[in-house]
Design goal:
The chain is mainly α and 321 residues long. Helix content is 76%, strand content 0%. Helix 1 packs antiparallel against helix 5. It starts with a helix and ends with a helix. The mean pLDDT is 83.
Length: 321
């Protein structure tokens, strides 16, 4: 129970920081331009530093055995997420113009800026390398299947006579070239070769990486402050989608896998990453491909808010079973 109490206190602290981010944005201390700049710092500097710094605290014997499993489970996770969302599109009778956004949101989730820091705070740095593999896989699926889904729903790019459900898979290498993915590859290189950075460099990277958790929570609050919360709270489909996708599915998978997987770190990372809310970049991607930005924002807002209820529930489940 002491571990659960510690987990709740960490989540409460993070939620409090989100509230601070919401307030400072509403008060005008962080402008839209400031939000974009800090978010860029997080993606290109703080998060990569956190990933690289995590290597120094890992046990090579344990980690080497875990890494292939992290890759396999993250791949399976995104297949399941896509399949579950496809079924929900049918069951919820989602309008044709919303289906590509639903599907893309299942692939572009907030693994990096929300779940990775939460896992590190609750379960320690032993989860960071595995979490970063999920971030890497997220980038891979966004750049392949994710963009194919968005293009399939883009009215300006759809071939004449093509149905709204048709897909054209396009591989975009430029999308994959990003700082978190490069940092993950570099961290894996250091891990498997046993090389270490100079102490001064390692300390500097560790200090920069330590800013990731509080800044990421502030940015989530700012994103909520800049969204239309009123319209978000009245969309029933979004609630059903979030409950099934972010709570019921990961809980059921934990109960199914728990008897067969003895390594708790593999399960912790899998379940929390599976419950990741819709990524804050989904509305921007939706706008880029002429999709419904407001609907994408509603998905992001509701799933993010509910994650502060769902994740403690999942942590409780994993602590009791």
């Amino acid at each position: 129970m002491s571990e659960l109490a510690g987990a709740y206190s960490q989540i409460f602290i993070m939620f409090a920081i989100v509230v601070v981010g919401y307030c400072v944005s509403k008060l005008g201390y962080i402008s839209r331009a400031g939000f974009l700049s800090i978010n860029s710092f997080l993606i290109h500097i703080a998060l990569p530093c956190m990933i690289i710094a995590s290597v120094s605290s890992l046990d090579p014997d344990t980690g080497a055995a875990q890494v292939p499993w992290f890759f396999a489970m993250s791949f399976v996770m995104y297949l399941l997420l896509f399949g579950i969302t496809w079924v929900l599109n049918v069951v919820l009778h989602a309008p044709a113009e919303q289906r590509p956004v639903f599907l893309f949101s299942s692939l572009c989730n907030n693994t990096g800026l929300l779940c990775l820091p939460i896992l590190a705070a609750i379960y320690g740095e032993q989860t960071v390398l595995g979490s970063s593999i999920y971030v890497l896989m997220c980038n891979l699926v966004i750049g392949t299947l994710g963009l194919a889904v968005l293009e399939s729903g883009d009215p300006t790019k759809r071939a004449p006579g093509a149905s709204t459900g048709s897909f054209r898979l396009r591989f975009n290498v430029r999308t994959l070239w990003n700082a978190p993915l490069v940092a993950c590859v570099f961290a894996l290189f250091l891990f498997f070769t046993g090389l270490r950075l100079p102490d001064l460099v390692e300390s500097t990277i560790g200090t920069l990486g330590s800013t990731c958790v509080p800044l990421a929570m502030v940015m989530v609050g700012c994103a909520l402050a800049q969204s239309d919360l009123k319209s978000a709270f009245t969309d029933v489909r979004v609630y059903v989608y979030s409950i099934v996708r972010n709570l019921l599915a990961p809980a059921a998978l934990y109960l199914l896998l728990h008897p067969f997987i003895n390594d708790p770190v593999l399960l912790w990372v899998f379940v929390i990453m599976f419950s990741a809310p819709v990524g804050v970049m989904v509305p921007a991607w939706a706008g880029e491909y002429h999709q419904d930005e407001n609907f994408a924002a509603r998905l992001t807002v509701i799933s993010t808010l509910l994650s502060f209820v769902f994740i403690p529930l999942l942590v409780t489940l994993m602590g009791l079973v």
